[in-house]
Amino acid sequence: MSTLTDAVIRQAPTREKEYELKDTERPGLRLRVLPTGRKVFIYRFSFQGLYASLTLGAYGTMTLAQAISARREAADALVAGIDPREARKPKHDDDATVTAHVHRYMKAKAPDWSGATASLAKAELEFLIDEVGAKPIRAVTRKDVQAIIDAALDRGPAAQVCTWKWLRAFFQWCADRDDIAESPAAKIKRPREDTKRDRVLTDAELRKVWRAATDAGGPPAALVKLLILTGLRRTEATHLQWSEVGDKAITLAGSRTKNGSPHTVPITPAIKRLLDSLPHTGAYVVTGADAGLGGHSKAKKAIKDGCDHWTFHDLRRTFATGMAKLGVPLAVTELCLNHKSGTRANPLVEIYQRHDYAAEVVAAFKKWSAHVESLVGAERVKAAA
């Protein structure tokens, strides 16, 4: 035991298990040192015969002087017969909820995210809100977070890893701001390694999926057919707005794409027939409403096709593979996909190759649309109502 000073705190070593340093001059004040190297001030006390502790803040975001002051306020509350934990609760409980913190997180990160990333974050964190949104952020336990990650497996192994990543990022952000002492997701192990998928639908499977989408109708049909014909990423399609659809092309700003690069999809006759068949009753193409399509897993379940497991992203891979089979050069296919990697990532190509391949891209989309129509029939390109 020793008096806590900045020197003592800085020199406190990290061990395999967490431990505490007691302050000999200020009863109850302690420094908890975690295996991660994080150091947290806590106040231990007894209230109504029960031993308890109060997290004051993390060293780095809270100074030693601030911790001493917070400890004094907690001790004063104890003398007044008030539970120090209640005394330190925010005055407005709504500000302390998980939902409020998610909204603050989304607002803080928005300037650094593309539209696609923001959409993905919103979708993933909505699962957190659904389960524990009304809880104070400090009351969320590791068990709560683990349950949400476990439930995500129903949406697929890749979705479970994605949920794990976003929950870890969110709660670590909260911990870094000292809204919580430590992240309840920090010790939860990655559920599995990222699965590198190589699923490509055969022509027969693509026909089955298309026709099953027609039978499902509504937004699920619109989404699947748009993904097949355009090769767009899922979030780009689910939040496609009519304002982005012109007479000759679909144009996405960089803020709407994963890699931040603007993207243009020429409108082929098949794509036009699909778009013309959709209701223009709202701002968004797929839903016909004033909000994009959420609940992607529900849309997927609505399409009963009899094919082995496939994902929406597999349709993009099938689009790319189909282009290759039709003899479309790789450089053109990458433009159709709005890829920055591959041949476009070569510094020599980036510097010296200035041809935009606009005509070739249009020709490639026409080839692919014609191929899809040969499988499903031109009359079936329209989305079922």
Account of the 3D structure:
Helix 5 (115-132) packs across helix 7 (157-176), helix 6 runs antiparallel to helix 7 and helix 8 (203-216) runs antiparallel to helix 9. The N and C termini lie far apart (73 Å). The chain is built from 16 helices and 6 strands. The protein folds into 3 domains: 6-87, Integrase, DNA-binding domain (Double Stranded RNA Binding Domain, 2-Layer Sandwich), CATH 3.30.160.390; 94-176, Tyrosine recombinase, N-terminal domain (DNA polymerase, domain 1, Orthogonal Bundle); 203-380, Orthogonal Bundle (hpI Integrase, Chain A), CATH 1.10.443.10. Strands 1-2-3-4 form a 4-stranded antiparallel β-sheet, covered by helices on one side. With 385 residues, it is of the alpha+beta class. The longest helix is centred in the middle third of the chain and has 20 residues, at 157-176. It is elongated, with a radius of gyration of 27 Å.
Radius of gyration: 27 Å
The CATH topology of the largest domain comes to hpI Integrase, Chain A
Number of strands: 6
CATH architecture of the largest domain: Orthogonal Bundle
Number of domains: 3
Name the poorly predicted regions. Answer: 342-346
Mean pLDDT level: 85
What string, H for helix and E for strand, traces the elements in order?
HEEEEHHHHHHHHHEEHHHHHH
Mind telling me the CATH class of the largest domain?
Answer: Mainly Alpha
Largest sheet: 4 strands, antiparallel
Approximately how much helix is present in the residues? Answer: 40-55%
Share of β-strand residues: 5-15%
The CATH homologous superfamily of the largest domain: Intergrase catalytic core
* Structural class by SSE content: alpha+beta
Number of helices: 16
What does the overall shape look like?
elongated
Sheet with the most strands: spatial strand order: 1-2-3-4
Q: State the distance separating the first and last CA atoms.
A: 73 Å
